[in-house]
Amino acid sequence: MIGCDQYAWLRFGLGLGLLSVASFAGPPRARLDNDAMGDVVRKVVETHSREAAAAKPTYLGSEVCMACHRDKVTYRDTLHAKGLKHAYDDSHSMVLKDGVIADYDRNGVDDFRQGLDFNQISSAFNKYKPNAPILGYQPGKGYTVTIANVEFLVGFVHGGTGDYKQRYVLRFPVTDTATGFSADYYYSPVQFNETSQSYVMYSDTYWWNADLTPKIKGPMTAAMAAKTGKSFNAGCVGCHSTVFSVRQDANGEWVSTTTRPIYVKDGDNHYLDITDAGEPGMLNIGCERCHGPGLKHVMNYGNKKFIVQPERDFTAKQQNELCGSCHSRGTSMDGKHEYPLSLDGKDFGEDLGGDLYGKYWTDKPGLWPDGKTSKQHHQQMQDMMKSAKWEYPYHKVTCTECHDVHVATKKHIRTSMTVTEGGAVLKIATATNDNTLCLACHAGFGPFAQLKRAMIADPKANQTLIESVVSAHTRHRYEPDGEVGLSRCTECHMAKMASSGDAYDIRSHTFEVVPAEKTLQYQDKGGMPNSCAVRCHRGIAQLFGQPADLSLTNWTEASDVAVANWLKTYYGKDGTWWKTK
Q1: Residue 572: φ, ψ to 5°
Q2: pLDDT (0 to 100) of residue 52
Q3: How far apart are CA 315 and CA 14, in angstroms?
Q4: Residues 438, 524: one domain?
Q5: Alpha carbon distance 258, 271 (integer Å)
Q6: For residue range 432-452, what is the model confidence (pLDDT) as tens digits?
Q7: Residue ranges making up the domain that contains 547
Q8: Cis peptide before 133 (omega within 30 of 0)
């Protein structure tokens, strides 16, 4: 056994770092004081040998990482950490990131607890009445969705961060398993869009036949469930877990397993038991998803060479593919899963820095007719691969230059950036709504050659020159922090053109200001948005003598054509402000 003194650094970090932590693996237990908590984790570490750590990659869980890396505790409240959450009870009801937040009538009570019956209201489910969903909640049972008198238990909730949408993942009641429930989890047809506070149908064809009758009307077997439902384990678990394995059981259901974390923070409902093991598992994206299994690092007293550090160890391409392994759309190599998986069933997370496209992943993005611009969500890497930034000759841009996955800011936007200029090292506070995030890199180049990075470090003192230079480039007033965002870099170069929940809630990552010419060019293919119209001008067209646009999502209306023809006189092949190539 390794001597206790060698773990003083670990006991100290754990003792201070895991305040108010209630459980060591397994179900919640009595609260442990700080010294006891340090002793528990010390004993766990002492049960492992260095030889065992070297022989088998072992995952510990993010709480162990944060016990020493105290500057990363903000991770706990990030979208990666809180994408999925269990819904055994209503203790987190109406809490963003933590519970059910569906509240279409905005009365402060979640719609499940109210027993919302879609048969009694006008909604997206009108055509399925009288077999539309009924939401429910019962103490001791949890959240439920009932369709055609069949009650389905909500196993966990997906989303609900205030940004996009929330979905409800169900256990099917079956007649031939020991638990009485399906082994897999299946998405309900109910989706709550957070921006519009409204319901839409999600994959409703899994639930109703073409003649509008329900597919599930009574008792079913696990094999029937496998053939009917939209599987979480087949389609989603690979990008919503830190470590996992997946297999198909004798009934045809997909079953995933994950690792038991060493430690779970008191009250944290984001470690899910999806195998009926009676213990939490590493669902959601933890530290070790990007940094690799942590035991060897811990067993060698925190030696940095025993942990993956992407910015140190990987090329720009490898770093971007690490993010892009989930922030892209496609299939596993065998075509059975919507996440990277090799033909021998190996997860890309176990081969960090490996050959993503050669061994794990095949692209199948959902694009607008130009074949470049994303129409569907989680395709940021596929966008970026088509941009100049992917192979920029002077500097290979990486996702983490703009995003910091350790902070809980909106979209993980970096709050600061360290850059150099003339030999000086500058730390610049960054945000999108004042352009500092973009100008921290772009100052001194191209249209912004007059600016220096040191000026961006003190934007208030240099406001006049920054405003003059940027406005000369945009041909608009400089009000990036206003409601419209005039002259804000991201509103033009990263317009919202893809959809996750409500229409156009995801920014393009090609960094192209999509010209109005594309709206006109693809009229015979349903049209497509352009940056100027989708962000601003379709909504204010009448102020410029153009016809009002009636539909945001229809790009073939006469108004869309008229506005596009007008916009291309400013930004087009013969544009008076900017010319397209």
Answers
A1: -175, -170
A2: 67
A3: 33
A4: no
A5: 10
A6: 999 999 999 999 999 999 999
A7: 513-581
A8: no
